[in-house]
């Protein structure tokens, strides 16, 4: 798709433009956080505890006197680092597994699927607390938990696509041309099976942001004083009954906007890559 067609597509999809704008805001926050934030995200100032929004502290301060705006900006790095790492590591692991168990049906496929069933049978928060107890309450512990969740998801998605592709005529033609199993799997089947995976990546990043925040909220994720949206909401929830609403509100809005960003981008990618939808648009245009 050339630039002109892509621009026309975006103009017809305001949701895609909103998603791209939100993504751009997050990228700016990640790259230029030290220049955007006026205060350190981890330095406490007891004399400035629970100041309301306004003045020097745009979003106010928390119970320790840390600037909420600075913490929300810097938390973009933490949340997206965990989410992107977990999704792309699980993608790198899950896609090859999905290709193999989809191509070689039988005992191997059954064993791998049962392992996936075992992993997915654990509630994500229970698994998170168990791994935190073993590995410690670190950022990478959260990424490992999310990776264990997403590997089966990507593998099953790719397997379903491979099962639908492996009996098609172009595979028989590749065999007649002398292609071996590895060439058929990764040169012929995999490129044709990646369209739903590309859409799922954006969805998975949004899920990872929510799960990262949820794990931190229950104490199984990032620990203080690291800036992380779910941890900030957890700390602020304890203050809401006292009327200190801003501690939880602004990181909560950041979670909503970030997840909305990737949901809108996933919807746009689905429309952009689905040939059936493209055919419908051409038919309506004609």
Automatic annotation (TrEMBL):
Pfam families: BPD_transp_1, OppC_N. Keywords: Cell membrane, Membrane, Peptide transport, Protein transport, Transmembrane, Transmembrane helix, Transport. The keyword Hydrolase does not apply. One of its GO terms (cellular component) is plasma membrane. It is found in: Cell membrane. Its main location: membrane. One of its GO terms (biological process) is transmembrane transport. It is a multi-pass membrane protein. Residues 76-266 form the ABC transmembrane type-1 domain. Belongs to the binding-protein-dependent transport system permease family. The chain crosses the membrane at residues 15-37, 80-104, 111-133, 139-158, 197-222, 242-266. This is ABC transporter permease.
């Amino acid at each position: 798709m050339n630039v002109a067609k892509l621009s026309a597509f975006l103009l017809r999809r305001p949701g895609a433009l909103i998603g791209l704008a939100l993504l751009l805001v997050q990228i700016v926050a990640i790259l230029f956080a030290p220049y955007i934030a006026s205060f350190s995200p981890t330095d406490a100032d007891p004399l400035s505890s629970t100041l309301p929004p306004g003045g020097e502290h745009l979003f106010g301060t928390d119970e320790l006197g840390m600037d909420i705006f600075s913490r929300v900006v810097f938390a973009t790095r933490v949340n997206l680092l965990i989410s992107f790492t977990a999704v792309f590591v699980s993608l790198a692991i899950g896609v090859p597994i999905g290709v193999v168990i989809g191509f070689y049906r039988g005992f191997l496929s059954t064993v791998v699927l049962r392992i996936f069933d075992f992993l997915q049978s654990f509630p994500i928060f229970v698994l998170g607390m168990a791994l935190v107890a073993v590995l410690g309450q670190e950022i990478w512990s959260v990424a490992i938990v999310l990776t264990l969740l997403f590997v089966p998801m990507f593998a099953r998605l790719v397997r379903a696509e491979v099962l639908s592709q492996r009996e098609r005529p172009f595979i028989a033609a590749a065999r007649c041309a002398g292609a071996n199993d590895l060439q058929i799997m990764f040169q012929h089947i995999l490129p044709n099976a990646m369209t739903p995976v590309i859409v799922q990546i954006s969805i998975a990043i949004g899920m990872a942001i929510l799960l990262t925040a949820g794990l931190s909220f229950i104490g199984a994720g990032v620990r203080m004083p690291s800036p992380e949206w779910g941890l900030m909401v957890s700390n602020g929830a304890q203050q809401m009954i006292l009327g200190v609403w801003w501690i939880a509100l602004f990181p909560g809005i950041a979670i909503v906007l970030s997840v909305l960003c990737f949901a809108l981008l996933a919807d746009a990618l689905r429309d952009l890559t689905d040939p059936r939808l493209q055919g419908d648009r051409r038919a309506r245009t004609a």
